[in-house]
Specification:
- It is a single chain.
- By secondary structure, this protein is an all-alpha fold.
- About 60% of the residues lie in helices and about 0% in strands.
- It has helices at about 35-65, 70-105.
- About 5% of the residues are buried.
Length: about 110
């Protein structure tokens, strides 16, 4: 029994998918370094908030003798992820500030 062949040039219309690409930015801002940094900052901060909220909820549940959302290992993993993410964001911001300061110092007045 032979397998059917995949023919991407067939006359059938492309199959739609449920997933659509998402961006905080409008297409006109794609490629704008400043706008992309703001979008990255928003993503990372929301991820950090989610990690901390889940960890807090799990710790509160444990304090109330309720089954927690996450076990202790997963709670600690999310807290480390939040810490690492905030460190990454601060490093990226520091590099951008350094570049801005270097540019300002070399710019003629």
């Amino acid at each position: 029994m032979s397998k059917p062949e995949f023919n991407p040039s067939s006359s059938k219309p492309p199959i739609e998918s449920f997933h659509k690409s998402f961006s905080w930015l409008t297409p006109t801002l794609k490629g704008d370094r400043e706008a992309e940094f703001y979008a990255l900052t928003l993503d990372i901060c929301q991820d950090i908030k989610t990690c901390i909220n889940l960890a807090h909820l799990s710790n509160t549940d444990r304090d109330d003798n309720t089954m927690p959302t996450l076990d202790i290992l997963d709670t600690e993993t999310l807290l480390r992820l939040a810490l690492s993410s905030s460190h990454l964001l601060s490093e990226l911001a520091a590099r951008r500030i350094d570049a801005l300061n270097d540019h300002a110092l070399t710019k003629p007045e």
